[in-house]
Amino acid sequence: MFRKTRLFTPGPTPLLPAGQFAMAAADLHHRTPEFRALFLKVLSQLKSFIGTQNDVIVLSSSGTGAMESAVTNLTSPGEKVLVLSAGKFGERWAGLAKAFGCDVTVLSKPYGETFPLDEVKAHLTPEVRVVFVQATESSTGVRHDVGGIARLLKGSETLLVVDAITGLGTTKLDVDGDGIDVIIGGSQKALMIPPGLAYLAVSERAWARMETSKQPRYYFDLRKERKNAVKGESAYTPAVALIAAMGAALDYLAQQGGGDVAKGRELLVNNAELCARCTREAAKALGLELFAASNGAAVTAIKAPAGISSTDIVKGFKKQFAGVLSDGQGEMKGQIFRIGHIGFLDYLDCVAILAGLEQVLDELKPGSVQFGAALAVAQKVFAEARKGESK
Ligand SMILES: *Cc1c(COP(=O)(O)O)cnc(C)c1O
């Protein structure tokens, strides 16, 4: 059998061919009019993709670099910050804020859960300078109520920083309406290009806060990047080829959206929602349990059935089909497996994953699967959604 290598992980995600071609052709110097024109266009399209009027910065780093920049640009050592944590990426916020000497309070919930707004509210004293949260916690599949949290902060001096690295392009967000001060994305997720770029939109309040922050910063000094971005440049040599790929990906979204990047992003979100819904219902039809109480559309986390390790499901999927699923992270390894819905995946990918999953489960535990059970349910969900569309 032929086996095509395919990523079904919540990042990196499958690559858009137009992005790959753009990378291969990107023989550009970053201090030239050609690059400046490209970068200015990308920055403007990113605003539409994020859905904000705020200035957008692109960093040549993985997503965590942008997370670190939010901590070093917006806090001072000893300052009180609140981290909302219910998974591996929430823990990353806590680790970052502690590494830079913040006085960190962590509102922590078990993996798979989210934060009741009244509990968040109870932690919001005027001393809290910044709240850090994920839009979607990729380690558990949970979508947090960013809008609800933002509304609790309205009228206060507290800044809200959202890691939407898997949230952007999978989640309906109202960045400016809700007053999200910093929202962070990464190239290897919904933008369908390789890892290596992070981007973030920053509110005027947050820009003002940077002037009083006492953390040391150099490469990730966002004020320096902002000054350069106005001219279509970045402070240091940027990952030029990835920026060209990002431009191609945003052009693709614009084209899908009839010339409008924001419409293209809406299609992308709806696409992820539909694949996530098909996957959730299909998992239940196989007698599997979902891990997250409120699953978002970025990734679906599914508990391994009794007697089977999720690690063996992931390995079996790779061995039989060369398809890459994600195991649980950290303590969740062996317990759950995760299927990504982010970016350049469609309904046919979705049913292929489900068919492969039936096959792998049957091989691990012969006779445990009624072939077609997951597919039938996914097809029903898809047919219903189509009816809704044509109305
Ligand atoms: C992928 C991801 C990140 C970024 O991780 P990097 O490896 O630094 O790119 C951060 N937060 C979430 C929620 C993610 O899914």
What is the total tally of β strands? 14
Q: How are the strands of the biggest sheet laid out side by side?
A: 2-10-9-8-5-3-4
Catalogue the ligands.
Answer: pyridoxal-5'-phosphate
Please give the alpha-carbon distance between the first and last residues: 42 Å
Q: Helical content, roughly?
A: 40-55%
CATH fold description of the largest domain: Aspartate Aminotransferase, domain 2
How would you characterize the overall build of this protein?
The chain has helices at residues 17-24, 33-50, 63-74, 88-99, 117-122, 146-153, 175-178, 204-210, 222-230, 240-256, 261-285, 310-321, 347-364, 373-390; strands spanning 6-7, 55-59, 80-85, 103-108, 130-134, 136-137, 142-143, 159-163, 182-186, 198-202, 299-303, 323-324, 326-327, 336-340. With 391 residues, it is of the alpha/beta class. It folds into two domains: 6-12 and 260-390, Aspartate Aminotransferase, domain 1; 17-256, 3-Layer(aba) Sandwich (Aspartate Aminotransferase, domain 2). The two termini are 42 Å apart. The structure holds pyridoxal-5'-phosphate (PLP). Pyridoxal-5'-phosphate (PLP) binds at residues 10-11, 62-64, 89, 134, 138, 163, 165-166, 186, 195. The site of pyridoxal-5'-phosphate (PLP) has 13 residues, from helix 3.
